[in-house]
């Protein structure tokens, strides 16, 4: 008898293991299907459904199948057991069931009204994975990759505008959505659709902040394919990357805003506490992220000294790079800051300093590794979003709320882009034209971040309604606006290049746009924003020489009395580069990083891109081995360490 | 009041998230430390402590700190709660604690005597992660990488010997260890050290099977650095890779061996059932793994037809490759087979067929990706092994058992290597010399697989004793034998090349060994084992033309009546290659894959390796772009698709 029982329990455990495999297998198949579809679409130059839209569609279908085809084997889980002996939920619970002790692990707190939802399908429950997986595993690579590809001359040139859109714009968007939703909620209570829940103004603001995170991944992918104007691309990319960070911290601050008395009344003390909270977390995360990157830069920098040649071991270098970047995320989380923000700025700083110190082999390795992780994570998230519509068990669909949210999202986007563009154009020499503004308005898709923020807390009914609504808005914007990008670009006459069937045509157009960009470059210095110029001066004179082996030696930039220290800190190779322009790593052909599962081979063109930057910036650009395809070719030719090394041997 | 409670619960959850971050951070720091140490060691050519040994040492120190420095904040978790309403443990448990419902997830079953162990440190508990993580996340990349790097001419030449050592040798080792341990257990019961537990002969055999998995990762790394004889390297590598698969399936079969009556008595029916079980699972996993690889080969193969050019999108190709290989693992697990075995043979088949179809860019990407994953997973496992000595809470140290296990492991290794080598030498033309046999005996380290198999089940006291013993044997063998490899090679006079300080000396020695190997190559065909020749013929005539674009066209190898089908299945480019030797992908310079965080740059030598293989095999070798450094260089020069493609455009 006992033997039999033991045997059964082993079988159970086996079943448990296999169950996990089945779920992962479902995701794998969805991803494989998505890849095959992307491939097919790319072959047919079919742009009305982007891969993210496709992934979502497959997820949706699979969710439908799981929901209505699989049966429910686990009915017992809906029962609630009483336990009066405890005061709070411990992290581990040992339970004696018919003389056998089982260990249970704390998962989450559940509101009473949700208990019934748990009586459902066990398969559905298993497909709904822990929200913390989004924040701790899937988002960091995406955000890091975004930061890592931000290393752009155009980004720094447009820094002021991007910061305005990202900070002020997101705040405006959050408040506008909050106000409109509050109106809709009041109306819903009035017509009796909504019982008197705890749906305060802060909840509306919370919804506003999470819906303010834009994710134009689809739009940017199409921009990249179509060779759209670089300034528009940079504005959109920069805005969306920084705006994610702002939205995440904003959501966190609002959820901790707790006025002492009536939650509807305005409490100045609590408000300023929230603002302080926002600033503190943002600054702290920024500092955490950049300091890890600086440490990485210093470690990889030391390969120039004779003793330590980390660049000889690209695997170790890549490993260190990966682990230190991940540590930035984890440290921020452990310190109570926002890991996502830390990893974003870590990525930006790594690209700006560490990247220049890496060996050519490591440059390629890190680039491909992060690209691949980004690709997988992105498609997993979009698949999961599709799945969630049917597998998530506590959806609350409210048509009025959804309609209100749609209206709010558009009004908020409009009151972000148009007024701010008007203000920015007062100060900008190169104005943001009207059609660019329309395109930016149109590109306000909602994606992974909005979803991740919404799924993080789905315990109360208002939060569930927000989650359902956020999910539907993501579907709507990704499919409709994502699909409409190409026609919209044509309509707004932004599309510079008509991609024909003949690759040669592409080339000519590319060369034309390149020469236009060359003309443009001569005026760069004069046009630079003052913010950029101040930053550039400081970076070029002090940070670059300290953290990389480019730029003028510190001995020439620091005051004379610092000379002993300066000599110690300057790389020997910096003296040779003294006369060169350190500006070269704000690379021109900057579009390559965003979508590298692009054709790299069959069109032998892209070398032209780098010719442009070589013309403009001189020889050093070659040594930098930048992120573009031109640099890629160069990396391939010398597998050795930095060429400067030879002078040391 | 309620507000306050809500606030507290949010804080708790936050604390819960951060805790996870802290644990991961600890692992990150251990890995960063390990990498920095490896780097230092490599710089000083210090070979007495390999990186795996270093990782284990750091893990050990960290475990010591966690155990004795951190305090125990979670005392409540030791209490066992009664629950009579249930019959078995459901996967999810909802528990009402002071009017708040919490969700708990099933973790595992616990024996009564272990309950006390849970009263300990919460930090320790959290550092001890789920054994299934080893099997489902950390081992697959290591095993796949091993399979993927098995693509070797020497491997197929020594196939018979490798299979003998792997299958027969592991079986011998398992039985010998089982018998010796049974003797020791009897003695322990006799002197009263051991109460009359359920320590049957099958338990001893179980221990024997898990201790039979050898893991000479340390030894092979040093072999590679020292340029040891390729045949010895191949024998050891091939044996250890296949032997892991055999040990895993053997352990599974033994744990399901359940004689009906007295478990000590021999039950023929149950025995043959176990043998059948073994064969079925092995064959099934083999089939599952290879069929996924064949599917991958067919998909990537289709890029030669005009319609589908997957090779233009290296990211998609890499993604598909990765996902299909992982699916092999997951499908096998879901089907109740052994995922590790499936993923091993998937790797072997991928390397043999799919690899040839990939674009040069994807070849490099997949290679670097799997290398990197292997590197990380390996170091995580070794760090974790170090940690486990102090953080695992149910260790049972029994000196006699440990001593017995040490003796048993050595006797078993000896009765595997020497008798089998003697038998094999009767049939081999090129004998396995005595010093090779001693080196193989010496290289029987125990590592990740033995540990993972032992940690999978630590519920009963015998299993805990086995786990503790296995862990200590891993420590002992990795540190003592790993550290002693270099002196041992010198002593046995196997060390071909003395690595001096001057890199030129290295080069000369390398060139010398290369020319020796060239001489050797001329006799290859004649010496090939019959097993190899049969397989080679079939593979060359039918499989290669079907799955890759090399080899003779199927129209010439299949009977005439198959012509229509054959024409359909043959790649157009195969006709051009008709006269070439398809043997070239059994590459010569085969050592590069195993340890690629080796210097690739500062010594401009390795092109010589490929010169050797080019001389021997003609032009096609270049197109194949093989795994060695020579091929690497070639891949870099043309970033385009396979050169054959041009003829199609």
From TrEMBL, chains A, B:
The membrane spanning regions, by residue number, are: 20-41, 53-70, 133-150, 162-185, 278-301, 321-348, 369-390, 396-415, 436-455, 467-489
Keyword presence, Chaperone: no
The record's subcellular locations are: Cell membrane; Recycling endosome membrane
UniProt protein name: Sodium/hydrogen exchanger
Give the GO biological process terms. regulation of intracellular pH; sodium ion import across plasma membrane
Name the lineage: Eukaryota, Metazoa, Chordata, Craniata, Vertebrata
A GO cellular component annotation in the UniProt record: plasma membrane
- Leader sequence residues: none
Family that this chain belongs to:
Belongs to the monovalent cation:proton antiporter 1 (CPA1) transporter (TC 2.A.36) family.
Give start and end of each Cation/H+ exchanger transmembrane domain. 33-490
Name the UniProt key words of this record, in alphabetical order: Antiport, Cell membrane, Endosome, Ion transport, Membrane, Sodium, Sodium transport, Transmembrane, Transmembrane helix, Transport
Membrane topology is:
Multi-pass membrane protein
| Main localization (coarse) | membrane
Q: Which superkingdom? A: Eukaryota
Q: InterPro entries, from UniProt?
A: Cation/H_exchanger_CPA1, Cation/H_exchanger_TM, NaH_exchanger, NHE-6/7/9
GO MF annotation terms: potassium:proton antiporter activity; sodium:proton antiporter activity
Under the heading Pfam families, the entry gives:
Na_H_Exchanger
